[in-house]
Amino acid sequence: MSYESVVDQGKTDATVLGKGEKFSAISDVQEARLTGYGSLDQQSGIDRQDRTTTARNEVHVESHGHQRSATPASHYALSRALDAAEYHTRKMIKACAEENLIELSNEGFALQDTLAVLWELRSIRGDDWADLLNIVQGALQKEEFERFSADHCSAINEIVVNHLRPGAANDDDIERSIGLLRRVGLDPWKGISGEIHTG
Amino acid sequence: MSTGSAVFVDTSIAIARVIHSAETKRRIEARLRQYQLSTTGDVVRQEFKRRLLKEAVYLLNQFEKHKSYTAVSRHVVAYLPVQQLRKRNICLEMLTTIHEGASDEELTERAKRYLRTLVRFGLADFDQSVGHVIRASGCACARQPIVERARYKRYDFGTASCSEAPTCNVIEFIRQRQTECESILAKIRSMPREKKTAEIQNAESFIEKVLHDRACAQGLDPCLTVGDLLIALESVGIKDFYTMNGKESQYYCRVLDQSMIVRKKNPIHDDVVCSNSNTQWPDF
């Protein structure tokens, strides 16, 4: 697995949103059904020649003990949501660099909303990917985004870009993501941490 | 705090870093940041497996049976008696959720996913959470990986007893720590009977046996029966010992000339710092 730099690589936001995503080819009829899923930045049809189905991106997966099938529409929605998640993390990095705390917080909330969309689509990518998404969502819960540092933003961006986006997560993706969260002081186990005081 | 400082993290702290409240975790991390190196040991790793990750599997099994977050929470309260308060608290802490307003169905799924991730990656996180894991004890149980046999259901932890682990190195470890064992035994023998907890009595009995015949050490399953003692022996050479349970550790720290730092469970309290240079420590 290759890891790209988490800092802004000179891409415009529009470029970030539109390029490089790979997903299954869809028919015109199926595409017509996608009107309910708003494309963030481009007309459907761009990069159609590049669309492939990778081994990490199976349509039929076993999720949470259930065999489910994903429609092309849900694949498309997942792809767009991953675009948006990456977009929001890049905006967070930018806002943090500019010390624009309002923008940083707004993008943090937008990222959480996008992760919630991904959660609804989790059956497409299987249990390991959903487990990772669950950890990331939990780590961001109850965080004050205004206090996020460049390291926080970069870590979340790296997880989205390198570990959530490519496809079904593997052990390495989860272990590295937990390590990244730990390293910047975000708690991967926040979702199972409690207050039982006996002394 | 001296420069070049190191601290030894015991099992209670290692577990608290995963499942205790955000405020407790914040206090622990603040304490650890005072040191250049945080360390722990293989026997701590084994106890982390046995005490935390096995409880996680217990909860996964309950989720498989009850299929409801609410029902599992009720089950833990109803069926784990107060005599097993530590296990019950660990389970209840793991069942605490930050996903407010979520349905029972969502809480159930999220809890299962957290628990599965913890079982699968908890040991890797344990290793990454400290600067160094001391391997001196050669605890074979600690080094056995957890293997997922069936998602959310069955996990193979390997053996939890030295006597069943062919590569256990505890006999050699006891030989290397013979001087410390003798000092600890002398200390325990000098203690009034009413001060000796069950764990301390086990340690006394264990040391007496292995000093008489070192070869019997592995058969006594020490990482299972006298974990506190082995952890103390692992921490030899580290000046500060960080724990949430000073009851037994206070005696071992005294013998090993360590300072003991006790993290109170309630995060409103500060750490209790017991310097090795102080002759009086509070009662634990």
How would you describe this structure in keywords?
heterodimer, A: 199 residues, two-stranded antiparallel ribbon, 7 helices, globular, disordered N terminus, B: alpha/beta, six-stranded mixed beta sheet, 11% strand
Main sheet record of chain A: 2 strands, antiparallel
Span between N and C termini of chain A? 47 Å
N to C succession of SSEs of chain A: HHEEHHHHH
Main sheet makeup of chain B: 6 strands, mixed
What does this structure look like?
The complex is a heterodimer of chains A (199) and B (284). Chain A is mostly helical and 199 residues long. Chain A has helices at 13-18, 28-32, 72-97, 101-120, 127-140, 150-164, 171-183; strands at residues 60-63, 66-69. Chain A has one domain (22-192). Chain A is 50% helix and 4% strand. The radius of gyration of chain A is 17 Å and the shape is globular. Chain B is built from 13 helices and eight strands. Chain B is globular, with a radius of gyration of 19 Å. Chain B has 284 residues and is of the alpha/beta class. Chain B has helices at 11-19, 22-32, 42-66, 69-79, 85-95, 104-128, 140-143, 170-176, 178-190, 198-212, 222-225, 227-234, 246-255; strands at 6-9, 37-41, 132-134, 147-150, 154-156, 240-243, 259-262, 272-274. Chain B is 54% helix and 11% strand. The longest helix of chain B is centred in the first third of the chain and has 25 residues, at 42-66. The interface between A and B is medium-sized, with 31 and 38 residues.
